Amino acid sequence: MDKMAASSLSVASPLWAHRSVLRAASVSRAVRVAAPRAALVEAPSGLPPVRDNGRITLSVSVAERAEDIQAESKAMARAANATVYSPGLLALRYGSRPIKVATRALEILVALGSFGVKLLIDQSSGKMDQNKRKRGAELKRIFTRLGPTFAKIGQGLSTRPDICPLEYLEELAELQDALPTFPDKEAFACIERELGLSLDSIFSSISPSPIAAASLGQVYKAQLRYSGQVVAVKVQRPGIEESIGLDFYLIRGLGIFINKYVDIITSDIVALIDEFAGRVFQELNYVQEGKNARRFKKLYADKQGVLVPDIFWNYTSGKVLTMEWVDGVKLNDQEAIEKQGLKILDLVNTGIQCSLRQLLEYGYFHADPHPGNLLATPDGKLAFLDFGMMSETPEGARSAIIGHVVHMVNRDYEAMAQDYYALDFLSPDVDVSPIVPALRDFFDDVINATVSELNFKTFVDGLGDVLYQYPFNVPAYYALILRSLTVLEGLALYADPDFKVLSASYPYFAKRLLTDPNPYLRDALIELLFKDGRFRWNRLENLLQQGRKDKDFSAKDALQPVLKLLLGPDGKELRVLVIKEATRVIEAVFLGSVSDASKSIPDFMRTLLFNGNANGPLMMNHNELRGMIELRDQVFRVWGLLRTSENFDPALLQPILQVLREPEARSLGGHVAGGITQRLAARLLQQVLRLPESTPSSTS
């Protein structure tokens, strides 16, 4: 084999990195291809593949789908006794085993106690801030030594800016949840015991040793006997439930102590532990991971460029997961990616767009998006792997996040602070007024021009400092998605130091603002476009320019939520603003056209015709005239963007015409027309009566 292709399951360990090359040859020898390789999709078991000119093809029918559902049901039955997280059950199990609990507790206390002593020494000597980086690195090593539970806790803490300082976050983000492999004999026995079949009846070949090992299990590469398809087989580590259960029993007890006696930490530590433990225990049920992968595939793999491996249910149980093998290179291996003729930035952009859809459209997202779980396939697709830890964004928070971006663009820090209630960052009884100056100080310092120029890591780090200083409780979904986007930006920065993830994300936000009928987003769009009773054409122009960059942007849907509101019962105030803006635009177009027409007259004739005023007949100062022309040109540019967009129909703007036909519009329009006529008449009269300017005499 070439440089070892990454497996289709999580491979995030140094052990995998060191052993992969050494075992590449043995794996290649062990996996003998007994038949032509199948297409990389799941074949419903029990149905023979159809051969076409030597290639295996799989026809999908209603019967096959029914068999697939039946196979999934059988897999669920095999995992019926899978362990779930229950603090009460853990208390019953380990409350009667004091020696075992005390032994593990002593091991943990010695490791963490020595770390705590160092923190106290730092505090007493005034070196707390100076040694943050050093202590963060030490904590990373301690978590690695204490085993899989603490390795995962360290990874979880790396996404919690409300709990850990920045230096700790950066160190813990490098944590690898790797453990030594367990004996292959035990792994193969587990496969046979879980599936109720002999190894030879399932696989025509299987690698003699694992090609990847992580904290919860290890992965083998194999070939299915019935179809010849190459698969990845993940086998759970023996006794892992016992190890993790005991650790979380002890950790939860510590969390109860911290909640009661440590005032410096404002977050509910027990709630965070319960949430995280629940996710880790979910990872122990491989059937649930398979269902997660299927759901993720259904939601996101419809987009070109995203690959999600399929699951083989007949060979999956609570402790064994058989998944489509994916050849590819880890997304952080830029050199290998470029050797395949691929561009890392294209892959990162695919990941960003998929992450935004996960966060803000369906709300179901990959909660462990480290580089080992993202592969670049030879055909340029981005493969998402390891679906043990998934999370969901509450429906209300999806819109609130977009609104938060709008408020950031507008530098409306009071509204930003209020957003934290909707995002569940703050309890309703917390006063946000002290937080507003901190937000203003941070964002005024980093946003010099536009949000697209803001580096996402700078944003996360700076906002993390704010969260750390105030009584924020960052929801898990928000912390995890920040981590996802930060990881993607970090990968891109290796290829392009000037890459900005927010710039790559903004087309998506623009598209959602322009097209989403959600009332919250509709109001956010109106808030973005109108200020002090004036329409901000430059903002609409920018939104259209950015939105058109999103491949899912549809011009026929642009502005439809706002246009529909115009005619609705709640659109009265908006109708008044639209009427005023329409008359202002008419004035700008008319006066701008008059100004342009006057410029076509030669200078000497213009001076004679307009009584010595070479600027024209309007008697407008330069700034006023420039403002009129800029407004007119902006309107024309916006119309050009709409008109040249795919699927745009001018009839879509009919609601504006209907509003302009209303009596109040005609009345206001008449007043404006009368005002324009009066102003033109006054200007022309002033032009006629204008006396030549006298040159001031010099005084001695």
How many whole angstroms does the radius of gyration measure?
A: 32 Å
Please, what is the average pLDDT?
Answer: 77
Note the gap between the termini: 97 Å
Structural class: alpha+beta
Q: Percentage of helical residues?
A: 55-70%
- How many DSSP E strands? 15
Strand content: 5-15%
Rough outline: globular
Q: Any low-confidence stretches, pLDDT <50, length ≥5?
A: 1-58, 691-700
Query: Biggest β-sheet, characterized?
Result: 5 strands, antiparallel
Instruction: State the helix count.
Output: 28
Domain Protein kinase: 205-535
GO molecular function, one term: protein kinase activity
InterPro entries: ABC1_dom, Kinase-like_dom_sf, Prot_kinase_dom, UbiB_kinase
Pfam families: ABC1
How does this model look, in words?
This protein is of the alpha+beta class and 700 residues long. It is 57% helix and 7% strand. The protein is built from 28 helices and 15 strands. The strands form five sheets. Strands 3, 4, 5, 6 and 8 form a five-stranded antiparallel β-sheet that branches. The chain has a four-stranded mixed β-sheet with strand order 7-12-11-9. A two-stranded antiparallel ribbon has the order 1-2. A hairpin with a 5-residue loop joins strand 5 (217-224) and strand 6. Helix 16 (413-422) crosses helix 17. It is globular, with a radius of gyration of 32 Å. The protein starts with 13 loop residues before the first helix and ends in an 11-residue tail after the last helix. Residues 1-58 and 691-700 have low confidence and may be disordered.
